Amino acid sequence: MPRFGLLPASRWGLRSTPPAASVLPAPSPEQPAASEEDASLRDRLRRRRRTEWKRKQRGQTFLDNLIVSIRGGSGGDGCVAFHREKFKPFGPPSGGNGGRGGDVYIMPTPHVTTLSAIPKRIRGEPGANGQGTWQNGKNGEPLIIRVPLGTIVREIARGDSRRSKDEWEAEEESFEGLNTGERLEKMRDNRWVHYPRFGETNITRDSFKAAEQALYAQERERRFARRQRELEEPINLDLDKEMDTSKSVDAPLGARHREPRGFLVASGGLGGLGNPHFLSQLNRAPKFATRGQPGERITLALELKILSDVGFVGMPNAGKSTLLRALTGGRAKSEVASYAFTTLNPVVGIVRVASDGTFEGGVKAGQVHDDTIVEEQQERERMQSGEYANALTRNQTAERHESLRVDTDRGGYHFDLAETFRFTIADNPGLISDSSENVGLGHSFLRSMERSLALAYIVDLSAPAPWDELLVLRDELEKYQLGMSRKARIVIANKADLLGGDGDAAAVADAKAKLRRLEEFVAAQMLTGDGLRLDVVPVSAKFSQNLTRVVGLMRTYVQDARDRLVEQPPKELDVVLPRPLLPEPR
Ligand SMILES: Nc1nc2c(ncn2[C@@H]2O[C@H](COP(=O)(O)OP(=O)(O)OP(=O)(O)O)[C@@H](O)[C@H]2O)c(=O)[nH]1
Ligand SMILES: [Mg+2]
């Protein structure tokens, strides 16, 4: 009899009958289970579920925010030992000191682009314990947390529920429910190492009591200094620039070159002192040593401001992701599908421009950027039909066809030579009306656009009234941050290929009239920060039409903005200074 026989099967999550209306057709033994269509349907449903989940998070879980709790390494314990040697019956105390715990640093680097690889809890390496014959323990190695350029690091203040406990609070918590005597005993255990069987007698001796008093006094001082530092100069770093790794030109000849470690965020605990430290005229054989101190504990909020030059703003399904893929020659992998909220996180891509205005990927004739699911399907079919089996390698192609050796339609390698300018563009999730009230995916992702040099509106020209979209987008930008819409420089009217019907004169005239109406609307209602008109460019992202013009315009915006930045550098948000080490106990 099954163990759960007495309970209804549903109690155990089992169903005696299949659910009445299942979304997917149940595979029957006669039918082959996973046909191609089933697989694609399942794939589609999986994607949709993921979107729904993200939507329900109400914009709270973009991967540009992270809270990490960091501990410096704890110090190693001091050692209690006495020197032993033949014919020397009472050797001197010889316990080594413990090693210092490893410090934790934070360093901006261009080699990382997201915060996804950073663990939520970070521990510095502990120092090793001291040993007999005056052997000191090894110091813990420093730990460097590498974060992308454009990360803002803030210390979470006391009283915030997201902050984890500091070392003293954690100790206090472990004493819960103990009376005063037990507390004192536990505190001593955490701080002292005794020679075997001398624990009881040590604590009655005056020399130990004096040492204990001194230790607590040091600890109070350290704790005070730490709280003061938290109040007066909380960690607040704006890591925009890569760290300078070169040696100063003024460095004296032969000076050691130290690898930069970044900014100190949590220092490791000091190592414990060995018993020779407590040697005095009154106590010739100290039988105690101190344990290592715990490392500093700190909670940091990391926030990534993606530093893209141009940010896309548009309604869901306007074709932002398709445009990103088209402008980067398919290198930026942003998902494209025909339902709203396909893109859940901002995605950044690089546009590489040659001297003649062409851009990498744009010169590939006949390339279609379709829905990613369709492209995957086509790829799978090509693979299964064996089309790739006899494909020539790049070198073979170049050898056989002399003319292909300097081809311009192959991205990457050749563009390394041709490229004269590059800028980054960011694809964003869709904005809809009332995003500011957290409808849809909310608008919190716009934080990563705060610093972009220009914004581009993407609208769907095939929609009945694309001009209405523009007003909504502008309002949402303003609701996010007053004056943000002044950064917009261009209106990209996408999906122009859908207009014009079969090319008959009337349909083409209609399409032209619609475009003209959009242009008139933009001229009348939308101005840039400098009081200029926004450019309006009809394009087809899917078929890469008219994109060279878009790239040319974007290039001028970026260049203008960069020149302006050089003329008037922005005010530094925060003073970025490495934090000094905590004072050493005397
Ligand atoms: N005909 C045509 N279809 C396009 C064009 N650009 C995009 N599409 C289609 O429009 C649909 C939506 O495209 P996406 O790029 O996913 O749109 P999006 O703005 O990124 O949408 P979200 O990520 O949901 O905000 C897809 O089915 C695309 O194939 C275009 O220029 N012409
Ligand atoms: Mg998208």
TrEMBL record:
Domain OBG-type G: 308-559
Low complexity bias spans: 16-25
Gene3D superfamilies with a match to the protein in the record: GTP1/OBG domain, P-loop containing nucleotide triphosphate hydrolases
Positions of the Obg domain: 60-307
Source organism of the structure: Mycena maculata
Domain of life of the source: Eukaryota
Any Gene Ontology CC annotation: mitochondrion
Sequence intervals crossing the membrane: none
Region (Disordered): 1-43
Protein name: GTPase
Extent of the signal sequence: none
Molecular function terms, GO-annotated: GTP binding; GTPase activity
Keyword GTP-binding: yes
SUPFAM superfamilies according to UniProt: Obg GTP-binding protein N-terminal domain, P-loop containing nucleoside triphosphate hydrolases
PROSITE patterns attached to this UniProt entry: G_OBG (PS51710), OBG (PS51883)
GO terms, biological process: ribosome biogenesis
Keywords: GTP-binding, Nucleotide-binding
